[in-house]
Structure formats: structure tokens, C-alpha cells
Write a structure and sequence with these properties.
Elements lengths: L16 H17 L3 E2 L5 E3 H7 L5 H6 L1 E4 L5 E4 L4 H10 L9 E10 L11 E10 L4 H17 L5 E7 L6 H13 L6 H9 L10 H7 L11 H16 L5 E2 L11 E9 L7 E7 L3 H5 L6 E7 H7 L13 E5 L2 H16 L4 E3 L6 H10 L4 E5 L1 H6 L1 E6 L5 E5 L3 H8 L1
Length: 416
Amino acid sequence: MSIKAPRGTKDILPPESAKWSYMEKKAREICRRYNYLEIKTPIFEHTELFARGIGEGTDIVQKEMYSFTDRGGRSITLRPEGTAPVVRSFLEQKLYGQALPKKFFYFGPMFRYERPQAGRYRQFHQFGVEVIGSDEPAVDVETIILGIDFIEELGLKDFFVEINSIGCPKCRPRYLDKLKNYLEGQEDFCSNCQNRIDTNPLRVLDCKNPDCQELLKQAPKINDFLCAECASNFSQVKEGLDYLGLSYREDPTLVRGLDYYTNTVFEVKSNDLGAQDAIFSGGRYNGLLKEIGDRDIPATGFALGLERLELLLKEEAANFGSDLEVYITTIGEEAEAFSISLLRQIRAAGISADRDYGGRSIGSQMKDADRKNANYCLIIGSDELKSQAATVRNMQTGDEEEVALKEITNYLTKSL
């Protein structure tokens, strides 16, 4: 019996992998413009980091983490999200002693034991940004706009933005008391909601059950309980989005699935993804650094699932830069030997190039060049070596011309 990939994982093969390279390239370009620098953290961390940072009462910690005991008897967890590791690194490396804020971005695999479905896997990949060291509402606006710029440059148009404020430790407890009293007075919530009423009542607002959503229409709204500071902060975020002309919806039931969030939270959603419609989401998490370490430093950020985004990129992989630029077709052993140095010369000029390695006929080589969507095909045989000129075929038009071998690289550079 053959061994298959574990459930909830996925091989990303060519030409589909071209989309992934394209997404990462675009993300890096956007982050460069916004002056965000890349950070790389370990794939596994001490379990305590996520238990303290994400929250003991969350579904992630209780049901979804991949945790194990290593040979030293330590509890280790494959990271289920990227924010807590970035914060841990910031604190451990004492980056708070440098000029703030620090603006980071990251890519990488995350792991959660979830029910696999379209765009959701047990090993999934995220692109995320974090800004640590500023409480300015303008930073919240910047992270939202950065994400919007990213998906728009990928060609996405059919999306919408939802925002909310979930208050802070000063004003949220009063709201939670009112919310809990209301929830306890209802008998028709689903079993998941019933379990969350005592452990994490804010998460009840996130339930997707239509019956629960109907009951929540009469529930107390967090906006009515915000302290003056939180209300002012949220107002400034909205003013910033208005100033930039970004339309958005205020959703008083919008919460995040992680306990570390405070103040502004947001989700950018697609109309093409069904029930799991979030493209990227995030918000402010001013209490996380104090929870993990001993520094009361504000922060904000978002995470974007690349599998879900890839579903929205409907173009064929060839449109994402997967084409081969030059294919060298050889006739005879002498031409094959010569092609090795010619390939290196062309590649050194930054041009993608390949050749046949199967000893196929000239006709089969031309078909292979066509399958690989090569822009140009160089035909080299004994006659071409004697004349020191190759036949260059434009694979789109079929036109051919003779080009001196010593001019091949310059010719291709100009033509491409």
C-alpha cells in the first residue's frame, strides 16, 4: 500500500506553485513600500506561549493544537498562528530597547487540527504583518490598507471590510457581565454556544448558526459600553478609513477567535468563498506583550491565509510568471555538449532557459518547448556550430532568424 500525505495537508505542485511564488513576491513588494521588514520564527514553540497568549479557553488551545512532549520532557507545540511567536521574539531579543515601532511581516506554515475543507487545511500557510510599539489609530488604518493594497494588486475586487471595537480591559468586563446575563436567559443557543457562555461569552457572538445569530440580534452591543478612550480610538480609525475612501461595515458581533485582541478588530471578506469568507483578519492586541512577558507595549496586525487566497486567483498559473523563456533544441552530441555552456551563459543574464535531457528527436523537443510555453526556441546542430549562428524561433509567431552565437544573450535580453 502506498503512503499518502496526511489528511489536511496538500502538495503544491507546478504549475500551481507559480501562484504561490507570485503571491509571496507581491506581498514582499507591498511590505517594502510600507517599510515592513521580514521576521522568521521557529515552526515549534513551548506550549505555554500559546496557552498564555492565545488563551486557555479558546478552541485553538483546547482542541486544535498539535502538541507533544519532546525527549527532554518539555511540552512543545507546532505553531497554530504567527503573532505570539513574533511577540516572543520581540521580547526575548529585547527589541523594545530600539526605536519603536517595529514593523514586521512573515510567511510560513501553521498547524491546527481542524476539519479539512476548501481553503482550510491542518497545515496551512499565512502571510502576516505586526506593528509593535505604537498605540496610534493610524497604525490600525495602515495595516488594513496594506492588506487591501496587497489583494487589489493581485486583482481581487469583490471583497468588503467589516470592523468593530471590542473594548479594553477597563470597559469590556462590564459588557461581558451584561452579555453573559442575556445569554444565560436564553435556552435555544447551540451546544457550542452553551459551553462558551461561562468560559468565553464573547465567542458566542462569532457563532455561524443561523438560529444563534437570530437570538444575538437582541443581545447587548459592545459599542454601548466602550470607555471614552476606546470610543475615541475607534472613531479615529473610522475617520482614517473614511479619509482614504475605503468603504466598510460596522459589525457589533465581530470578534476574533484569540483572547489577546483589544480595541479595533477587522475582517476583509470575499463574496466568492462561501461560509468561510474571510480573506484576512486581525486587529489590535495591546495586552499580549504583558501577558507573554513583562512589557506593557501596544501592538496591532493581521494574518492572511494563502490557501484561501489562492482559491480566489482564478487565472491559469501561466499568468503568474511560470512560462519558460528559452528552450535550446539540440541535434547531435556535439550540440548537446555545447548547449551546457550556452545554457549557463543565458541563465547568467537572468533569463530562464532549459533543454531536452531525454535524447528525443528534434520534433519531440519542439513539442516539449511548446508544452513548457517557451517564448523562444534555439535550434543548434552541427551546421549551426560551424557557422557559429543559431536558428532562433519565436514560438508565438513562428518567425525564425539566424543569430550569431556570440550575440545570442544580447538578442534574447532585448527581445524578452
